[in-house]
Specification:
single chain; 454 residues; alpha/beta; D-Maltodextrin-Binding Protein, domain 2; six-stranded mixed beta sheet; four-stranded mixed beta sheet; disordered N terminus
């Protein structure tokens, strides 16, 4: 069962909002937007000259890693790249650029944005045969790049699936097994909470670390693994691109009940978890507040830079009643509507190559923009000096990784609704069956608004 992480901003709501955002954006980044597309059709831009403009949702040292990749691409092809990266209001800025006919050529963003981008009409479909090396991409990764009809609208660049981080020193002190089932997770969580695993004589530790904020849907990401492990799902396909909400199924209610038990009955989640985003959840694990945390392999470097290094182990997510599936996520490369198509496809081809995938994992150790390689010829463990954690990460991703419904027209809105309901359920310790029934109705209404209800 358990615990995902990390997240996404929302697309802009309307013309006035987009225009205001663009005005601010243009003042700050006017030089960059001048290099982006002019707003003419993609066919007219297919062989346009000038640098490629690439926008990236990210922060910190990630830009340095991307610059290494782009420099290698330029050295190979002679095509220059002008990157722009931000984590703040990224999709709002992108909507503003679309309104002003100033879209970049390529966007690197979360796979969860695919349905929203397609609905807005700001990305192009991609013929895989025109992307050199597309046959080298692992089949699981392509699931993040197709729409409801099976058409490809992105090229995968990075992937990941969540693993369970657990304090090995706490397990040893309390003579507990590494958990492999929900029941063992609950038992270990109770012991971590009640039996002073750090030996300081204080009642100040907790079993499970939950990023439970509604911001960017954190709590829904956390709970999604639990939902699938229980045998439930958000929706079921009715065929022809239509879906019916299934969040009131017995399996979904079981997943909600398990969460409610951990938080309300057992009280094994960290204090304030309903307000905690990923940064706060990271800190709770790093500082010994909580002993189990489900997150992606990108957190290896984060944790190893703190006092918790050497005190934790990483294991496959414990199995629920139905499976051991865990949330899979990724970064996709989107070919924008007004792109310089020929040059942009060369960049997409390069970014999935072993050279670029290797650079994305190793060029800047503090920013592994490629978490797990999507190229089947690149081995993560080998690139990380034989670290077995990366071997496990690859195995879990390929065997148990489960993507969200990124291809729905606005999956972010559906995820947000789930987050709101789950957060309220735990805050009030309310009846899980009633909460799931209410959520299912809201989900079905949103599907209808998006034109995909069965």
């Amino acid at each position: 069962m358990l615990f995902p992480l990390r997240r996404k901003a929302r697309p802009a709501g309307g013309t006035r909002t987009a225009a205001a955002a663009l005005a601010v954006f243009a003042l700050a980044f006017g030089g960059l937007t001048a290099c982006s597309s002019s707003g003419s059709s993609s066919s007219n831009n297919a062989s346009a000259s000038g640098p490629l403009t690439v926008w990236i949702r990210g922060s910190g040292d990630s830009l340095k890693a991307y610059q290494k990749i782009f420099a290698a691409f330029t050295a190979q092809t002679g095509i220059k790249v002008n990157p722009f990266m931000t984590l703040t209001d990224f999709e709002t800025k992108l909507s503003a650029a679309a309104s002003a006919h100033r879209l970049p050529d390529v966007v690197l963003d979360d796979a969860a944005q695919l349905g929203s981008f397609e609905t807005q009409g700001i990305i192009q479909p991609i013929d895989r045969s025109t992307i050199t090396g597309s046959d080298q991409i692992v089949s699981t990764a392509w699931k993040s790049a197709v729409d409801l009809t099976g058409a490809t609208y992105a090229v995968p660049f990075s992937a990941q699936a969540n693993l369970l981080f657990i304090r090995k020193d706490w397990l040893d002190k309390l003579h507990l097994p590494v958990p492999t089932t929900w029941a063992q997770v609950e038992a270990d969580a109770k012991a971590f909470t009640n039996n002073d695993p750090d030996g300081d004589g204080k009642n100040d530790t907790y079993g499970i670390d939950v990023p439970g904020s509604t911001t960017r849907g954190y709590i829904s990401w956390w709970w999604s693994s639990m939902l699938w492990q229980a045998g439930g799902d958000y929706v079921k396909s009715d065929g022809n691109g239509k879906y019916t909400a299934t969040l009131d199924s017995p399996a979904a209610v079981n997943a909600a009940s398990e969460f409610e038990t951990l938080a309300c009955t057992d009280k094994v989640t960290q204090p304030g978890m309903l307000n905690d985003d990923s940064t706060a959840a990271n800190k709770a694990f790093q500082t010994g507040v909580a002993g189990m945390y489900l997150t992606g392999p990108y957190a290896f470097a984060t944790m190893d830079a703190t006092a918790v290094k050497g005190k934790y182990v990483v294991v496959a997510p414990p199995a629920g009643p139905a499976s051991a599936e865990t949330l899979a996520e990724g970064t996709d490369a989107y070919l924008m509507a007004d792109a310089k198509t020929d040059e942009a496809k060369k960049l997409l081809s390069f970014m999935i190559s072993p050279q670029a995938q290797t650079l994305g994992m190793t060029a800047v150790p503090t920013a592994t923009v490629v978490r797990l390689p999507i190229n089947k010829n690149v081995d993560a463990a080998s690139l990380h000096k034989g670290d077995p954690r990366w071997t496990l990460a690859q195995q879990v991703y390929q065997a148990a990784g489960h993507y969200e419904y990124d291809s729905l027209p606005n999956w972010t809105a559906l995820r947000q609704e789930t987050s709101n309901e789950l957060n309220a359920m735990i805050a009030d310790c309310s009846n899980p069956s009633s909460a799931m029934s209410a959520l299912n109705g809201k989900f079905q209404s949103l599907l209808a608004q998006q034109g995909v209800a069965g």
